[in-house]
Specification:
- The complex is a heterodimer of chains A (242) and B (226).
- Chain A is of the alpha+beta class and 242 residues long.
- Chain A has 3 domains: 49 residues, no CATH class; 44 residues; 109 residues, no CATH class.
- Chain A has 7 helices and 4 strands, in the order αααααααββββ.
- The longest helix of chain A is centred in the middle third of the chain and has 37 residues.
- Chain A is elongated, with a radius of gyration of 46 Å.
- The relative contact order of chain A is 0.08.
- By secondary structure, chain B is mostly helical.
- The chains are: A alpha+beta (242), B mainly alpha (226).
- At the A-B interface, helix 1, helix 3, helix 4 and helix 5 of A face helix 2, helix 3, helix 6, helix 7 and helix 9 of B.
């Protein structure tokens, strides 16, 4: 290591900022070179003087005044922060909490959306059952297949959530003595304009002027039958299922 | 909390066992950091009493740093006030896993840089770094018994103030943090958002300039120039 190289490293050597290998080489050189040793002495002296460059001791009154002026500035310049800034500042320091809160909000919104949609679906099914997808009343003497025609509408029927759910609408004709089954069963999974509905005859009822609604559950042994008094004798009527 | 240290001492024919109860230093810095962390958390939530405690803990450090960077008390006070206002403003962004004092140094250096820029723009308000230092040092010297020693200290302080005033801002910040605040090169680099090699280069340059300035002054060249 020559003098030029050592003299470049001396400012760092004097503050022990060199790596161990370099420091050892510089130290060895300084011990044998008078010029570099003198220069090293100057660096040591100037560094000692630098370290004595301390700030004066300020009195406690200076610090008190400083604190009071800072607090006054804070009171004057920083009015109550808006609520969103407070939340942002609080969440900034806790990223985990922020992520968890965001996920919770997303989950809550999704849950509310699906619940609301499910309610609206059930309401529209009920309205469809009451208004448009009704089965016309069977006329006396007509074959069962013809009595089970469905009024076609432009709207597609709502598909039930469970497969195999079947609703059976039947309407008992007021004419007595009809032994042929007049009820029409229709799978709601099929569209109304998709051709002939899936017709399953139901048991005949002896009651007159009543609306009979049969609902086939997923269990083939369980069928829900609902009788409701008919309001008028028109060819179509509405019913509400539960 | 003392720590029990057992030392086996074999001497000649007899064996002795020395049991020493050495009082280990209490982890004062750790406790201080813990209390500062609590103050920070409360201050970030809007507790001004906690923020005042933060100021009490750090005011001397900030004031000393601003004085070394700016060279006079008036600017140092203004800068310190600005530092604490910025700390209060951005305390919400401070993460608890950060070193608070390193963050505080960073804010202080930024404020001092802004002050130096403003000083350059308004030269009429410029107060030379050495001028006030000289006055303050002379005031101190009157109260001291050893007048000769006081004069020497005064001269050294004035000399250093002038030497520091010749340094560029980044070199001055690096040398103040490294040689006066006693931080490591890596810590200085983190505070200045720079690389350690860059900081070493700045420190090396600053030490060389200070040595040359002092050498010129001490050998009489500096006085002739002035």
């Amino acid at each position: 290591m020559n003098c030029r190289h050592v003299q470049e490293l001396l400012p760092l050597f004097v503050g022990q900022d060199l790596e161990e290998n370099q420091a050892r080489l510089v130290n060895a050189h300084v011990k044998i070179c008078d010029t570099c040793a003198a220069l090293f002495g100057e660096y040591q002296l100037s560094r000692e003087m630098t370290q004595q460059f301390t700030a004066p001791q300020f009195s406690e009154s200076v610090y008190d005044g400083l604190r009071q002026s800072v607090l006054r500035e804070i009171d004057r310049d920083t009015p109550a922060a808006p609520w969103h800034e407070s939340i942002t500042a609080a969440l900034w320091r806790r990223t985990g909490w922020a992520v968890a809160t965001a996920l919770l909000i997303v989950f809550s919104v999704s849950a509310v959306y699906f619940i609301a949609r499910r309610d609206s679906d059930s309401q529209s099914i009920a309205s469809d059952q009451g208004g448009k997808q009704v089965v016309t009343a069977a006329q006396p003497g007509t074959p069962p297949a013809e009595t089970g025609t469905i009024k076609k509408t432009n709207r597609l029927p709502h598909i039930p959530t469970r497969e195999g759910y079947r609703t059976i609408y039947s309407r008992r004709n007021s004419a007595p003595g009809i032994s042929a089954p007049t009820a029409v069963t229709r799978k709601l999974t099929t569209t109304t304009d998709g051709g002939e509905p899936n017709v399953v005859p139901s048991r005949a009822s002896s009651a007159e002027k009543t609306l009979r609604v049969e609902m086939q559950t997923s269990d083939p042994n369980i069928r829900i039958i609902w009788f409701a008094p008919q309001q008028n004798k028109s060819t179509s009527s509405s019913s509400k299922g539960t | 909390m003392g720590r029990r240290i057992i030392a086996d001492v074999t001497s000649g024919a007899a064996e002795m066992v020395l049991v020493l109860e050495l009082p280990l230093p209490v982890k004062a810095p750790a406790q201080a950091h813990a209390s500062v962390a609590q103050f920070i958390e409360r201050a970030a939530a809007g507790d001004k009493t906690a923020f005042e405690q933060i100021m009490v803990v750090s005011q001397q450090r900030v004031m000393s740093m601003t004085w070394r960077m700016l060279g006079n008390e008036a600017d140092a006070r203004d800068a310190t006030q600005e530092v604490f206002l910025r700390v209060y403003k951005y305390l919400g962004r401070f993460r608890q896993d950060q070193d608070f004092f390193a963050w505080l140094y960073r804010v202080t250096i930024n404020v001092c840089r802004d002050f130096l820029k403003r000083r350059r723009q308004h030269t009429d308000r410029f107060l030379p770094l050495a001028e006030e230092t000289e006055t303050a040092a002379l005031n101190v010297a009157v109260d001291q018994d050893d007048a000769e020693q006081a004069v020497i200290q005064t001269q050294q302080r004035v000399l250093m103030a002038r030497a520091m005033a010749t340094l560029p801002y980044k070199e001055r910040a690096a040398i103040v943090l490294r040689d006066l605040e006693g931080l490591s090169t890596e810590e200085v680099a983190r505070i200045m958002k720079s690389r350690p090699t860059t900081v070493r280069s700045q420190i090396s340059s600053a030490r060389r300039k200070i040595r040359i300035y002092c050498n010129q002054y001490l050998t009489g060249k500096g006085r002739e120039q002035q």
